[in-house]
Every structure is written in C-alpha cells, then in structure tokens.
Design goal:
With 555 residues, the protein is mainly beta. The chain contains four helices and 55 strands. The strands form four sheets. The protein has a 19-stranded parallel β-sheet, with no helix packed on it. The N terminus is likely disordered.
C-alpha cells in the first residue's frame, strides 16, 4: 500500500491542483492507496498503461517468498513457493542453500530427479556467478530443476554448487519437453552439470526430448560428465568452457540422440572431450537407440587424457571439422564399430589439428574402425603430430586428402577386413618411419590410389603386404636420407600404374621401386629415381620405360 501526502504532490503545470486529484480531501491529509490503484505509464509510442502492482509482479523474486540467500539458511521452501507461481523467478545475488526438494519422481533413477519441476515458459535467472544455488545435503544428492512436461524453459545466469545436476530433462512422454536452454551458468561440484535425458540404460520406456541447448556455460569439474544428452533431438552444446572434466566427457551425445551440434567449446584438462554413442541394446529397437546426424566443429581441448572425439554410435552423417585436440594418449578422433547399427551414412573429418601427448607410445591421430558401410569417409586437411600412427583406416571407400601427418611409425595404415578396396590418398604431406602402409594382415589390396603426396620416410614410403591390383601410385615426391627398406614396395602388383614419381633416396642397398613374387600387366613409366627400379618376374604385358634411375641424390 502506498502512502501519499497531498501537500507533497507535484504541481500539475497549472492544469490540475491537488484538490482536483483528490477533490474530497483537504491539503495536508495523508491518503493510503494500494499499488493496484496507482497507474504506471511506460514511455514510448504505443505504450499501454497498467498499474504499478501489475508492473512489479511481472518479475517474481525468490526473496518475495522469504528466501534469505546467506548460504546458511535453508531456502528450499521459499524456492518451492516461488516456482509454484508458474512465473519466471529472479534469484538475486546471494547463496541459496537447497536441501531435498521432494521424494523421487516416477520413472526416474533413485535420489536424483526429485527436483523443482518447471512449467511452460518458466525461466530461472540471476546475476551470474553471484547468484548461487548450493546443495546443502551431500548424502541426498538430487537435481535442482527438472523438465518433464513443459516447453520453452531456461536457466540463465545462475551458479550451481553440489547436487546431482543443475537440471534433468526427463520427459513424461515422447516430445513432452520441447525447448530447454541452459545459458551463461556456472557449475561446481556437481555429479553431471546438465543431464539431458534418463541416465539409466535406455529401454523401451525411455522418451525423447527436443531442442535442448547448453551455451556459454563454465564448469570447474563435475564428478562424471559435464553435458549429457540422452535421447535428445536437436541438441546443442556451444560456446562453453570445460575445466577439469577428469571423470567422463565434456559433452556426451548419448543413446538415441540425433541432430546434435557440439561447437566452439573450449576444454582444459579432461579425460575425453566428447562422445557420440548408441545403446548396446540395438536388437530391441535400433532406430530408437541410434545416435546420428552429429556436427562437432571448432572446439579446442588441451590436456586431453585419453580420447579427443569418440564416435561410438550409428556413425551416419557425422561431421568433425576444425577442432584442436592436444595431449591425448590414445586417439584424437576415433570412429568405433557398434554391432547392430547402420554405418552407411557419410562421415567427414576435416581441418582438425590433433597432437598426442609427447610421452604417448601408441597414440593414433584418426582411427576409423568402421569396417561396414559403403559410403566413403572423407579425411581432409588434417594436421596430426606426436603420434605413433597418423591415420588408421579399417574400411573400404575412404578418401584422405591434404593436410600433414608426422608419426613415429607409419603415417597412414590401411588394415581392412577381407580386402582393402577403393581408398584414395591425395596431396598429403607425410613424415615418419613409413608413409602409406597397406599391411592388410594378408588381405589383398585393390583400387588403392596414392597420388600427389610428399613422403619423407626412414623405412618404406609406400608398402603393400598382399596381392595388389588396379592401383595407382603417381606424381608423389618421396625422400629419405637413410632408407632401410625402399621407396615403393608392392606385393604381386597386377594392372597397376606407377608413374611420374620422384624418389630421392640416399643409400646403397635399397631399391626405388620393387615388387615381390611377380608384376603383371602393369605400367612403370616416367619415374625419376636416385636408386634402381627392380621388377621381379615382370609379365610380357608389363611396361617399364622412360624412367631415370641414376639421378643424383639431393640432400
């Protein structure tokens, strides 16, 4: 209720006197008027007049319901009352201690989803790191907020300390949660910072959520994952800062997630940067449990312990571009096989910078272990160093183009079940013990193309370990100051073309180009070599002409 003294009313520019405003009241009299009777006129053309009461009630503060925010007083009841209004809630600067909110909800994991449930359009917002929600009872760790049946809800400019998660997205029915934003929030001492979906093993009762976004947030290190999307459609994690995520993944797009964007995030000290996975219960319903249509772009992670980017899902329509992963001990980008799922969609891994920890002994820059599927995978313009193997391919139909690979062993290893077939390697700069090693473990090599590459090696530049057919090795620049095996060494080449290569090898006991067993109906033409070309058992249909084999070695 407002108190106004008539004598204190400002002049009305000669138009009205105080008795005109309150004609029945004499000057000097005190008048009490509720804010519901006093009008509020916003400035600006077309603004609509309302009451001061209505204006004040547009924003609800948790302190309107008795919250103290001193970090000692339990403010759970105040938070419960504020959320019951269904309005957006302001959490002013302070530390709001929260204890168990309610009993565990149905279809939920025990002791984690008994949270404040958000209603349609509700936004929880504060003053950034200064507005902290503190979980007060570690023995009964729960989520702070929950989205189960709502649209367009958000957490903005809040800080969360302790508890299971800042929010759990756990739909009552498929699509009953549509639109959740967690923005500019701060996380500390949580089990999982943002839990998008049911963390239990996904089953037929699990429901999907839509349009989940986590952006501009910062974590000081959760116990497990920072951002977990499970069965989420159209999910995004963008522009976040991850620190000390040493128990899991910075971002995990888990079982059944699709159309996920993970971009422009930074991470310092983590076990893994991100993972995309599908459930191991594919036999139940592969379409439901598959995770695919994923973009992982322009992220930077340093001090990665094990994996940088791990694709362990349906692996259909995956783009991994422009990322920097530094310090991993195992793999920079790993495409893993999952039984029961399709791996037929396109995969592009391009423009990434991948550098293993200097002390690592078996790290791989890119490991494509998806042996099934027919769509080609493309690996373009990646820069990889400090690894044992630069790129390892275990599939047919792959393209490796551009970029730079520095490795302790072979720069590119082809190890495909049944047959190495349809792999193109073009314009790659390589430096290592070996360049291209088609070891095949006895599998034949067919339609392998290595062209326009620059290979600086110490063992062998291009090697095939089984019968090689319909393959092209052309226009490569091959250099070695101290080769131990040879330049191009092929097993039983048939219908192959070895043309216009430059082999600058220093040594007295290696061949520039050679083969084992026999060479049939092949072309060896226009090569410039500092060492001999030795063809074993060439067939009548093999052409060996126009080569220079006595060029001087140039250091």
């Amino acid at each position: 209720m407002a108190t106004v003294k008539i004598s204190q009313l400002p002049p009305a520019s000669g138009a009205l006197s105080s008795t005109d405003v309150f004609p029945a009241v004499q000057s000097g009299t005190t008048v009490k008027a509720t804010s519901g009777l006093l009008s509020y006129q916003p400035s600006g053309a077309g603004a609509v007049t309302t009451t001061i009461q209505a204006k004040l009630r547009q924003i609800v503060s948790v302190k309107d319901f008795g919250a103290v925010g001193d970090g000692v007083t339990d403010d759970t009841a105040a938070g419960t009352a504020a959320l019951a209004t269904g309005k957006s809630i302001y959490w002013p600067t302070g530390t709001y201690k929260v204890s168990p909110i309610a009993s565990p909800a149905p279809h939920s994991e025990p002791n984690r989803t008994s949270a404040w449930e958000l209603a349609d359009g509700q936004v929880m917002f504060g003053d950034g790191a200064q507005s902290k929600l503190l979980w007060g009872t570690p023995a009964t760790r729960q989520c702070f907020f929950k989205a189960a049946d709502c649209v367009d809800v958000a957490l903005r400019n809040l800080s969360f300390d302790g508890g299971y998660s800042s929010i759990i997205v756990d739909p009552d029915t498929d699509g009953s949660v549509d639109g959740v934003v967690v923005e500019n929030c701060y996380f500390k001492n949580l089990l999982i910072d943002v839990l998008g979906g049911n963390q239990l093993a996904i089953d037929s009762s699990s429901k999907y959520a839509k349009n989940i976004t986590v952006r501009g947030c910062s974590t000081a290190g959760p116990t497990v994952h920072s951002v977990l999307f499970t069965n989420c459609y159209n999910a995004q994690a963008t522009g976040n800062q991850f620190n000390n995520v040493t128990g899991g993944f910075c971002v995990n797009a888990s079982q059944g997630s699709r159309n996920v964007i993970i971009s422009n995030n930074t991470a310092d000290t983590c076990e893994y940067f991100c993972k995309v996975e599908s459930s191991d219960t594919a036999a139940v319903n592969p379409a439901k449990f598959a995770s695919h249509e994923i973009v992982i772009a322009n992220n930077t992670a340093i001090n990665v312990d094990i994996y940088g980017i791990f694709i362990n899902g349906a692996a259909d329509h995956i783009s991994v571009t422009g990322n920097v992963m530094v310090g991993f001990s195992n793999t920079g980008v790993f495409l893993d096989q999952v039984v029961g799922y399709s791996h037929t969609g396109a995969v592009v891994v391009s423009g990434n910078v991948l550098s293993a920890a200097p002390a690592s002994t078996n790290a791989i820059g890119i490991n494509d272990a998806l042996s099934t599927g027919t769509s080609p995978h493309v690996f373009a313009d990646n820069v990889i160093d400090e690894v044992l193997i630069g790129i390892k391919i275990s599939r047919k139909n792959a393209v490796i183009t551009g970029g730079s690979l520095v490795s302790d062993s072979s720069c590119i290893v082809l190890n495909v079940p049944a047959i190495i077939d349809g792999v193109v390697i073009c314009g790659v700069k390589m430096k290592g013990a070996g360049g291209v090693n088609a070891d095949g473990v006895g599998q034949p090599v067919k339609r392998l193309t290595v062209t326009g590459c620059d290979i600086d090696f110490t063992g062998v530049a291009i090697f095939t370990n089984a019968a090689t057919s319909q393959s092209i090795f052309s226009n490569n620049t091959i250099t070695s100051a101290a080769p131990t095996v040879g330049g191009i060494v092929l097993t039983s080449p048939t219908n192959c073309s070895i043309q216009n290569n430059t082999l600058n090898l220093n040594g007295t006991s290696v061949d520039a180009i050679t083969n084992s067993t026999a060479i049939n109906d092949s072309i060896v033409v226009g090569n410039i070599c500092t060492r001999p070309i030795t063809l074993v058992s060439p067939s009548a249909g093999t052409i060996n002409t126009g080569n220079i084999t006595n060029a001087a070695y140039v250091a």
